[in-house]
Amino acid sequence: MVVRSSVRDRVLVIMAKAPRPGSVKTRLVPGLSPAAVTAFYGCLLHDTLALARSLGDVEVAIMCPDTDVNELTQLAGSEVVVVAQKGEGLAAGLTSVFAHFVEGHQRRVIAFNSDSPHLPRSVLEEAFETLIAHDVVVGPTHDGGYYLVGAKASHPTLFAGDGMGTSSALERLLSRVRTLELSVGFADAFYDIDVADDLTRLAEELRLAPARAPRTAAWLKEWGRLCGGGSPAR
Predict the structure, then answer these.
(1) Which of 75, 101, 162, 163 has the most C-beta neighbours closer than 10 Å?
(2) Total number of domains in the chain
(3) Structural domain for 108, as ranges
(4) H-state helical runs in 102-192
(5) Phi, psi dihedrals of residue 161, rounded to the nearest 5°
(6) How far is CA 66 from CA 19, 69, 77, in A?
(7) Three-state secondary structure call for residue 13
(8) Measured between alpha carbons, how far is 138 from 124 in angstroms, rounded to an integer?
């Protein structure tokens, strides 16, 4: 674990895994080979880190499984805090984010997906602003989940129970927010990169604006060329 050298009042935490075959973006297989999926995820993570670093006066961190700390520390560089989550699974990871970064500090902490280089920077800035007036901020996805969640305090039961990664994930989260009597604000709805249709949509967006995620755009462009100019996922 990298020790924080300073305490900022805004922390942006990327929920990540080390890019290894069979452990990332598995729903894109068999449309893509495990090696191709791993390379693609590496591009997504690289560009998501660049997006996070582009925000001013924000501490950038990664929360990941314990087995991935060393690899992600090398990948992310010395300016990014890499922390091993306590427990297994996404719910444990999100609980660890707020327990680690909020406890004992007056801070606004946002956790978001590692496959999110297509997010406009303004979405992240506005999410931090939303936390000034609300206890929790959530960024919904179109499939019933969420790509972003932020808070100013640690709420150990906020991510309790099952349902992570399902079409009811957002509904379950909001139910627990209501149970805890927390106020909630929302970021704009976006999409995850989970299945072939998502990959196709991202390729089309980045073809028009490759500077938003240059490494991902270059990978998708090369894949499309190898597929004869067709959709990279079909």
Answers:
(1) 101
(2) 1
(3) 10-193
(4) 121-133, 169-179
(5) 85, -175
(6) 14, 6, 17
(7) strand
(8) 11
Token pair belonging to 226: 């190898």
The confidence band for 161, taking pLDDT boundaries of 50, 70 and 90, is: low
**How deeply is 161 buried, as exposed, middle or buried, from its count of CB atoms within 10 A (0-12, 13-18, 19+)?**
exposed
Report how far apart, in Å, the C-alpha atoms of 230 and of each of 33, 151, 192, 227 are: 17, 42, 22, 6
- The answer to whether the CB of 113 falls within 8 A of the CB of 138 is no
Residue 103, classified by CB atoms within 10 Å of its CB into exposed (0-12), middle (13-18) or buried (19+), is exposed
| Tens-digit pLDDT profile for residues 5-49 | 345 799 999 999 999 999 999 888 888 899 999 999 999 999 999
Task: Look at residue 78 in the predicted model and tell me its pLDDT.
Answer: 86
Q: Which long-range contacts (CB under 8 A, 24 or more apart) does 72-81 make?
A: 72/16, 72/18, 73/2, 75/18, 75/19, 75/42, 75/45, 75/46, 76/49, 78/2, 79/53, 80/2, 80/49, 81/1, 81/2, 81/4
225 phi/psi in degrees, rounded to 5: -65, -40
- Give the tens place of pLDDT for each residue, 56-78: 899 999 999 999 999 999 999 88
Contact 63, 89 (CB under 8 A): no
For residue 26, tell me if it sits in a domain: yes
> Which domain CATH number covers 156?
3.90.550.10
204: in domain: no
Q: Rounded to two decimals, what is the model's pTM? A: 0.90
In a domain, 216, yes or no: no
The angle at the Cα of 76, spanning 55 to 197, to the nearest 5 degrees, equals: 75
